[in-house]
């Protein structure tokens, strides 16, 4: 079956270009080898998300408006009471603009121990206009189980600024979000005993049965018969007779050639096309026949003759040019043509990404695109 679609007025050159690609320059796929530790994760070795609520002080009038952000006012009053400052009777007179309520987030890495420091991100929770120059007060950071795993405090760096005048303002980056390098101290560890594991799962970040089989084969050939493929994502390692730590270190440095299914990803919003090297196209006929209408306006000024009673006037001049694409021809692409060759030929013809997306959709609808087409 054939499919007809349009792309560019000089499509008649397509046959010659594809003959050069198909007959003179066959496609060669260069497979890259990677380390196993670069494409897998170990079971149980993961980061944990932490979150906390706190106050940032020391802002130059850019903090929350206490009349609008009630939670900021209540938090400030509660903190002052814990520090021995009782202002409950005067809380209606509290009008500071140098304090802001914030949400503090962090990632607790695997194997973090008590006393280690981690980075934190601080984001405004109220109507503060900028956190630049602020200092985060002691803020407990909790995990999903409700336990405190770290405590954050320190000066913020926003890498942003905001300036405002009577009629204009300038803002660079996001002044309501900041970062504190090494701003939290780990108080509780997430236990994980790697040295006494009898078995461990390696999880592929891009699941593929061929890659998992190759990975198990290279492990068994180099280390010994300890790897078994359970599914396209998981390889089970039997560490009952081996020291887990040095064994995993050797496995991580082993090289494997990953394999991926043929897939084309198209982002219509941005006109981006991502394609795999193994995408193939069956025999398909391609034609182009766009109707192009070009309208050019060249107005001219008409001047009256000397000593006449005429008036100067602007006379419109319109030139309309219509290209029906009658000289374009049908091109036949033989089976086995790679998508790389197709796109290279279309690029040589000046076809843009938007037209290329329509071409790929038409080829897929015809059943000639031997790959998964994912539209985003």
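Sequence proposed for the structure above (376 residues):
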């Amino acid at each position: 079956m054939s499919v007809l679609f349009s792309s560019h007025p000089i499509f008649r050159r397509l046959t010659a270009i594809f003959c050069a690609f198909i007959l003179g320059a066959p496609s060669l796929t260069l497979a890259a080898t990677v380390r196993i530790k670069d494409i897998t994760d170990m079971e149980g070795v993961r980061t944990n998300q932490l979150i906390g609520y706190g106050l940032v002080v020391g802002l130059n009038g850019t903090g929350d408006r206490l009349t609008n952000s009630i939670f900021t006012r209540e938090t400030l009053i509660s903190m002052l009471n814990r520090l021995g400052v009782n202002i409950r009777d005067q809380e209606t007179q509290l009008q500071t603009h140098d304090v802001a309520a914030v949400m503090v987030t962090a990632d607790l890495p695997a194997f973090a121990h008590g006393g280690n420091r981690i980075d934190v991100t601080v984001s405004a929770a109220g109507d503060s206009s900028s956190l630049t120059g602020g200092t985060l007060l002691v803020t407990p950071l909790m995990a999903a189980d409700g336990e405190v795993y770290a405590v954050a405090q320190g000066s913020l760096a926003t890498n942003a600024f905001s300036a405002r005048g009577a009629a204009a303002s300038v803002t660079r980056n996001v002044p309501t979000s900041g970062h504190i390098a090494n701003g939290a101290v780990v108080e509780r560890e997430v236990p994980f005993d790697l040295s006494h594991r009898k078995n461990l799962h390696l999880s592929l970040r891009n699941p593929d049965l061929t890659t998992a089989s190759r990975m198990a084969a290279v492990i068994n050939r180099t280390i010994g018969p300890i790897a078994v493929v359970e599914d396209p994502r998981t390889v089970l390692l039997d560490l009952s007779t081996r020291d887990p730590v040095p064994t995993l270190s050797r496995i991580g440095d082993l090289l494997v050639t990953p394999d991926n299914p043929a897939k084309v990803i198209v982002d219509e919003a941005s006109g981006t096309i991502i394609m795999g090297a193994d995408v193939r196209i069956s025999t398909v006929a391609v034609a182009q026949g766009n109707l192009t209408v070009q309208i050019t306006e060249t107005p001219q000024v008409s001047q009256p003759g000397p000593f006449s009673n005429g008036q100067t006037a602007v006379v419109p001049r319109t030139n309309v040019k219509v290209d029906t694409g009658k000289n374009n021809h049908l091109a036949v692409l033989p089976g086995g043509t790679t998508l790389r060759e197709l796109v290279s030929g279309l690029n040589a013809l000046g076809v843009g990404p938007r037209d290329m997306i329509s071409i790929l959709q038409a080829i897929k609808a015809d059943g000639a695109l031997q790959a998964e087409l994912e539209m985003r």
